[in-house]
Amino acid sequence: MGRTPGRRPTLARVAERAGVSVSTASLAFSGSGPITPETRDKVLAAAGALGYTGPNPLGRQLRRGRSGIVGVVIGDQPGRAFRDPVAVQVLDGLVDVLGTQGLGVLLIPGVRAAEGVDPLLETAGMDVAVLVWGILSDDPTLDALQRRNVPVVVGEGRAVDGAPLVAIEDRAGAAEAVRHLLDLGHTRIAEIALPFGHDERSGPADADRLAQADRTPTVNRLAGVRDAVEPVLTWETPASLVEHGRDAATEILGTWVPADERPTAIVAHSDLLAAGAVIAARELGLRIPEDVSIAGFDGLDLPWLSPDVLTSVHQPLREKGAALGQAVIDLLADHDPTTVTLPVGLVPGTTTGPVPAPTAR
After folding, report:
1. Which pTM value belongs to this model?
2. Confidence category of residue 33, pLDDT binned at 50, 70, 90
3. For the domain bounded by 69-167+317-343, which CATH number is listed?
4. Is CATH 3.40.50.2300 the right assignment for the domain spanning 170-314?
5. How far apart are the first and last CA of the chain?
């Protein structure tokens, strides 16, 4: 009386074997509804005998008009995302929460310079799209999703009508990092900034260029730095990668500024940029923090930077991903969209110290 070879077990066969209606058998698997424990046990016993493991999730999703897929827009180049521990930890938290609901994830690149939106944005089936790193003022990614009536969840971006938003207190965090440097006596403080927009530019940013910054994390951290001090120099980078921080700091500390006017401290918008600055300072023969102090943002564990431990503004990365995942679940359950803002905090390390004493002339 077990499972018949070559014949797929169905809910109808389970119901027949248990002597109940199909709707009653369905309630036994849903875990809810007016059904006695005895009836549920009888249905589950019949299912076990037939080798039936439960309703087909794809069929259930199709009946609800859903795909069971969440599109996650991770940035302009996926390869960069997987080199960035910040992105990896956020994605871990997001996927963990979505997995509890049986939701799958489709990773989608955002807009790449001169290439337009990825075709997946125009064609892939998805119930919700998560814009992990926010939205630009004129954003083709958001436009493509809205044309398809795909609901969105926004991470660290400007608010969108009807969309949940998950943000962090990064403006306050950036200001806290600078005030820490000011308390140590530093006044010549340079800044290594995250990318400003789609164009991958590297170089000093003047007032006109600063006004063009469009990415929300960049805008917030630029503002936070200026809440505390006007930096002597801001260097824009094309991506949050160690090599870009190294290139920027090499210019800031080695060639762009005269030695007698060299900044005594650098605040970087990310830990990877700050780590690159540490490497550049070492290569230039500068001691950290005796000759130059360096602070970052993210709170990453970077054991390969030993013996230095970055002074950094720590943000709850996995928690941010989990909050994005919960926002997706709430959106699918037709809950009203909410805004969640997560706190950050400075954790001093070994890369910041008192301002160097003036050199005798």
Report:
1. 0.80
2. low
3. 3.40.50.2300
4. yes
5. 98
